[in-house]
Batch of 2 targets.
Target 1
Amino acid sequence: MISFTCDYNEGAHPAILDALVRTNFSQQPGYGADAYTEQAKARIREAVGCPGAEVFLLTGGTQTNSTVIATMLRDYQGVVAAQTGHIAVHEAGAVEYTGHKVLTLPQHEGKMDAGELAAYLEAFYADGAYEHMVFPGMVYISFPTEYGTLYSKAELQAIREVCQRYSLPLFVDGARLGYGLMSPACDLTLQELSRLCDVFTIGGTKVGALCGEAVVFPAGKAPEHFFTMVKQHGALLAKGRLLGIQFDTLFTDGLYLKIAKGAIDLAMQLKALFVGKGYELFLDSPTNQQFIILTEEAAAALEGKVAYEVWERLPDGRSVTRFATSWASTAEQLSQLAALLP
Amino acid sequence: MISFTCDYNEGAHPAILDALVRTNFSQQPGYGADAYTEQAKARIREAVGCPGAEVFLLTGGTQTNSTVIATMLRDYQGVVAAQTGHIAVHEAGAVEYTGHKVLTLPQHEGKMDAGELAAYLEAFYADGAYEHMVFPGMVYISFPTEYGTLYSKAELQAIREVCQRYSLPLFVDGARLGYGLMSPACDLTLQELSRLCDVFTIGGTKVGALCGEAVVFPAGKAPEHFFTMVKQHGALLAKGRLLGIQFDTLFTDGLYLKIAKGAIDLAMQLKALFVGKGYELFLDSPTNQQFIILTEEAAAALEGKVAYEVWERLPDGRSVTRFATSWASTAEQLSQLAALLP
Amino acid sequence: MISFTCDYNEGAHPAILDALVRTNFSQQPGYGADAYTEQAKARIREAVGCPGAEVFLLTGGTQTNSTVIATMLRDYQGVVAAQTGHIAVHEAGAVEYTGHKVLTLPQHEGKMDAGELAAYLEAFYADGAYEHMVFPGMVYISFPTEYGTLYSKAELQAIREVCQRYSLPLFVDGARLGYGLMSPACDLTLQELSRLCDVFTIGGTKVGALCGEAVVFPAGKAPEHFFTMVKQHGALLAKGRLLGIQFDTLFTDGLYLKIAKGAIDLAMQLKALFVGKGYELFLDSPTNQQFIILTEEAAAALEGKVAYEVWERLPDGRSVTRFATSWASTAEQLSQLAALLP
Amino acid sequence: MISFTCDYNEGAHPAILDALVRTNFSQQPGYGADAYTEQAKARIREAVGCPGAEVFLLTGGTQTNSTVIATMLRDYQGVVAAQTGHIAVHEAGAVEYTGHKVLTLPQHEGKMDAGELAAYLEAFYADGAYEHMVFPGMVYISFPTEYGTLYSKAELQAIREVCQRYSLPLFVDGARLGYGLMSPACDLTLQELSRLCDVFTIGGTKVGALCGEAVVFPAGKAPEHFFTMVKQHGALLAKGRLLGIQFDTLFTDGLYLKIAKGAIDLAMQLKALFVGKGYELFLDSPTNQQFIILTEEAAAALEGKVAYEVWERLPDGRSVTRFATSWASTAEQLSQLAALLP
């Protein structure tokens, strides 16, 4: 059985395992003070084009989101997100657990609209009772979104401008960042993205690492004593080298974007395969998550042979499904799918 | 330069790296539902001798401690610990961050005294104002302690009895559990330990893993929806296989205790080396952390060649130091130290 | 200038002030152990018709809501409320500050719909990823709602049934309870309400007290050590007598409902006055808060003479306004308004 | 039976009740925007001699402490207190509930020692692992202390200097401030105290009010959006007038200090009475709380006629007791005690 259920079904890119093996007995200090982490940070700073960037390596996505958000907000503030934002739905209330509200705006194929953000902020401060309400304290968007969609440069700039007007930091959750940047629909580079937000993450877990999310403060304005608060959130690895080695590898010779590109190429072929056979798309995703409306016949044909995620059963018997490719997907897997698909 | 600064200076036991390489492309579900995690849990249940035990695999020590403690306490309760307990000092207030007080008792070479615990609890409920105070809600001890010392079976039983008298769950932090169990001074087996507490951890990070702590509820009484709360604490790995593979390996053919034994043997030799040359021990640790009072002459001789941790400078110029061995320490490293030591 | 801006513009009902003066030098124990508090609780138990009810007296509404909700929820749970629920909007994130999410449902003139609640709960448990989400842990409704509307007995029963099906406690925020019960549209008695929920509050602040909300657990199932958690939330008054005397007075000879009735009678007259003069209602409220669409002409006529709250300016120049009567409102004030209103 | 158990046994000073009655029907805005609160704040600013002071009126002591501390600390910080500090012992973990650790220092008759504070801070920053620990973020002392003792001006200045060296705000909990300032042993004025700390409270509850603590930021540096956070902590009264009227009354014609002086005079007479009859003092308190070692004979004589608080039973049958006078204590009560005391 082959699986397209998600982009974290396999272990790590072989180059990462090689590096773990190669460096295994080098004695290094703990908690991220090791040489590999230093080098990884230097490489990330170069890749994002921000020599003054502060970079921290954490383990997982929910952990990273709640740590970044909790440490950047003041007590009276909440974080603004699209109602489908990962932090608003699928992180078990991790943000609220730190004492902060997630303030939600409507979503449009997973995206927040700059105009609606501006309208919300204007209305907030126009409300006579706003001092009795949770203040918007930062804006969270995901790139790509939970629906695989992307903000164009213009859309991101528009959100950025609204944020700046209200002095709100903009946080871009890049759990699948590589897959976004390598999409044919993406008109942004990593460097441009870095200049359009205050903090963002470079997801490792879903793009070739065993675990790991890099948090980047492009302008170098991490919250004071962020290290201590990472520890307080249970997000500090004793063997920081595990993260350092992985990101060092991913940011050597452009491996991160290279393997993301492979996944995107396969995703586009996968989409073409479904469309070519007449399947309807739930939405036209430009990244590695493809949302296909699968017929009962197709579901039966794939049963026990190809795994994917079912999002919703439609009344007509069809299902909204997600097929995800990843850095580990192969052309052969796609051929197998093609051969099975009615 | 060789380092005895801590037991997390190297990567992982080679068998773990082998297993990661070997399993790398097996497609597995995320969040701990993979086959390796299942197998690791089964092996741990067998090793601890509790077929009904519930086992969870988390990433790091502070994370595990705060997640276990926060999910087992009710809001009005705190956790009782020795004043040198890791949670009381070196976890950046992670427990308090979840809203709970760490209630401290005196320490005796890092250990809590059952009599003092009983006296504290008796005094608490005798105090007319106790309803205005934080209720003791569980007891935390570390095994070995932060000073490398161990509770004897009798001492642990005594603490256990006090806990039961007051219906307090007993939590044993086993970040260095293997080194405790393999100490010549230890009169407890893993199975016995399991029957003497309500929850304990089996530390992987310091005993051969890249990361990972196993949380064991021997009687199977994990807090309801513990999985969701692990996620809420940012402690759920998407690629749970990383933890599953490691603990599966460590609990195959007794590897965990075997490599801990190696570290202990070297630690005893290291202690003998220092004692033989006339150095004073700060305290007589039976585990892999050795606390040596180093002369200025010795410090000068080791300078730049052997690394260790300095805990305190004494007025006479000597220093209280910690030399830690680990699963990765070698006889050769010890010989080099012996050759250098005046 | 006369004010209809809210129902907490004045001090307290004179009977309360009399009682404060009369009892002033009686020496009483603190923290709610005084004789007045005991008597107040007994009277409330009688009024609600639940001899086994547990009653606690707290100071303010937001405080009471966040204390009740935080102490009844487990860490993995949130509270379900209509999106206009006071806790969801106007309590500065007090619930989230305690670590819990407010899960919102659509509102219908401020009310939650039982069918929508059932549909949400069904969908929640049908979602394959629900263990990654915040569990619904209790249901919060306000009676009257923030829009002055009321649940009928049938509507409340329907919500109650859904709650029971999912073992969710039902919390009724009665900050303006008296005004709800005395409404001509109300088909519920206080005793009936008590049997239809697990916890509710009897608001004093807006119904004749200087401060104070009574929390009633009709079936006597207050969270364990609720007293200590009230203290922990900063909600325990040293001079609990202040609350005891007030509720004792309000629940002597039916004063609470009597003065609420007076406010409702005036509110109905006020509504009739506006409707009679051709003003449009924003919504037809059956309680002491009346939502009137005021013309510019009317606004000009009342300027500087009658105060009210403006909720929203309409594009046509008119405003959505709130006129609230209270236990302190007088027929004379209404006459003055009538005389001024064009 | 007469009671000396505490200083919150009675209601309020009659002038306060008069003012409540007199102002009762004046219509005022809520949430502290009323004219009485404005006037109270102005009077307090004048009394403390800081025209730029920011003043907030909250309801109770634990509430005020946890709100002030939580809003002034950053997430990585804790508050330093003597181990007998009220926040460390008798506030049900309210500070920890907000996520912050109480870092304790030894106490000397309830007081913190400036030298020990300095030594702790020096050691903290000298510790190589301090980034893994809770940072000291502010210093809390009580004046008078929980043992009725007072800091001299020199002692307070010494603590202040240490705080300034480490940029730590100094918070003085003045729950019994009046009784401290009126003590014959006090060499500080209210104005001087104001210049020696960053924030302090003026306790109303124990000095003549029904409830209420004034929080004073002498230099006007309240945390940003303190109002909203007061609401978030459940500490904002809808009828802020209740607090405004009380503090307005207490700070008119020096009533606050005048009634505190009366209590102190009686406390000194009470102490003289005991000492004169040969009773031992547990400690020599200069304020309204007197700690007497009572013989069994005396206890028997007072049984059922005079109430006081028992702190501890001594092995010899005697008890450590607390007798508190207050603004409401009378010379007649003292005479009754004198007549009964063997």
Target 2
Amino acid sequence: MSENKKLPIGSVIGILGGGQLGRLLSISASQLGFKTHIFDPDPKAPAKQVTNLSSTFDYKDKRALENFANSVDVITFEFENIPVETIQICAELTSVFPNVNALSICQDRTNEKKFLNEMNIPSSPFVPAKSFQEILQSVHVLEPPLILKSSRFGYDGKGQKIIYSKEEIEGAASEFNDRPVILEKLIDFNLEISIIICRDMFGKIAVFDPAENLHENGILIESKVPASIPFSLASDAILIASKIVNALEYVGVMGIEFFVTKENKLLVNELAPRVHNSGHWTQSGCLINQFEQHIRAISGWPIGNGKRHSNVLMQNVLGSNVKLLDRNSNSSTNIYGKDDPKDGRKMGHKNYIR
Amino acid sequence: MSENKKLPIGSVIGILGGGQLGRLLSISASQLGFKTHIFDPDPKAPAKQVTNLSSTFDYKDKRALENFANSVDVITFEFENIPVETIQICAELTSVFPNVNALSICQDRTNEKKFLNEMNIPSSPFVPAKSFQEILQSVHVLEPPLILKSSRFGYDGKGQKIIYSKEEIEGAASEFNDRPVILEKLIDFNLEISIIICRDMFGKIAVFDPAENLHENGILIESKVPASIPFSLASDAILIASKIVNALEYVGVMGIEFFVTKENKLLVNELAPRVHNSGHWTQSGCLINQFEQHIRAISGWPIGNGKRHSNVLMQNVLGSNVKLLDRNSNSSTNIYGKDDPKDGRKMGHKNYIR
């Protein structure tokens, strides 16, 4: 991007990934007067319903990626499981935000943990393991209860297993089939919160108020603001979040999940280098929501201040519940345009002003 | 629409007209999980950027309209200058909201005035005229200052001329070239307000707070809520608005403009059978904005209650001002995706929370 970094109105924003986050990003980009181009191997990717520009190719199709990169003015992605090579191919031809370094750290739990450790940012104790043998040894380093997670490509609680005793480790380890894993101490937390933070390309940072999150089986059920935490904890979380995005020279919106322990200490649980489900409340609680904020950041436009005007409860609509959507009208409803309401699949969300 | 009138998620909403209002309606329909199909003779209509379904044919192309109507589940329109015949063709094949009767009244100022008169709803004194001769005679019925308006197809102050003296009438009348016109008493008002009202297909009504509007040369410059009017005036405006939508058995959002006279009396100035520029503030001031509200109404979903959570100032971005968009970030920005920033053309709008 040139010295004048502000992308002109009418520019095309390329989005890798056409799920609900790509769809909501595309809608916000349209609102700001940009065109969007969705790249996704799935011809029925929901985001392809909300723009007239899309590409349907594999994420490893170099030629298709080059055509895509040459036809857009900036590229972003909706999820952290995009192959790093995909981003590298695109980044040779146009600007990609967030940067590939942030992506490669955040898409691998072991890298992420090491990054946090190096920054002296507290997270749960962990042991990385590359093989069945290493997993078996790890259980002697950390006391159960533990949580065994595949190091890459996990989401919504997939690729995770809780281990309550040393005896369970062998059975659990075999499930992971010699994929790289990470064994973490299972945290007995009071509650979970998240920070949605944005850093623009000039280094300016804005945060939204911390959300209090409720998960079931690893899937987010609801988020509410304000979170029931003291102001001092919120400040600490915000400082940690800004330290992270600064260290990564990050551009765009990042979601950071924290545990608040029984001792009221913060532990970083996970970094998501993208807009985040726990930030959907900002659509109804802030003048500029997380999607508009991300598009502003990656297009060199000024970002919002994150100020919240209302108390909001966000509830996810999962699986076939989408068919039972009640007829009440006290929530703003978002449905993602997915065909197949599989169990636990995120089909939409509802925002209530409380 | 069947007994169970609620349109299923994934249904296709057809929108006649692909300007900014069609675009913003399409975006809200997407948010609710509907697909949209834009019908507009202009291949570059801005709304065609925000969906993958569009048709580019004349509004009088019967076959194209039939194909369109057969491929969607419900039809709405973004502006009142759609030919009545277009709606009639569509209405034979699928549901169209608002209904054709409301459209034909609202697209003709003379019909509109007569409708209001019959309902005993106050509006400015007027005389309809079908010819040059009738215009000349009208000036003897009403005392100048007057405003001469073409009866149909006027918008944003186009097709209007102010007449300060009887002597000016001849020159003015000749400009209108024997088109049907209406000669209205020019109202010396204190301020202009508008009501954005919604009626659903079950007869339920919801209104947004009245907005105070500022026009220049017939073009809306800004709207703000709350309007600086007493509560009693707001109530009267709301009662008039509900009387209008009930009488028309209207389904969807309607914008109604009022003058507040120097004597603090309300006069209806204009009915717009569609979402309205002076309701754009609802995007930042309400949980469910006027676009989501309209889509909910026409798809049989429950409508919002219109409650306002914040004070909002909406400013239009006109013509080449779109190029000068400042870098501040205290407003939520909407740009409409139009190529050509002609003088006075509505290119976007900004919402400020005050």
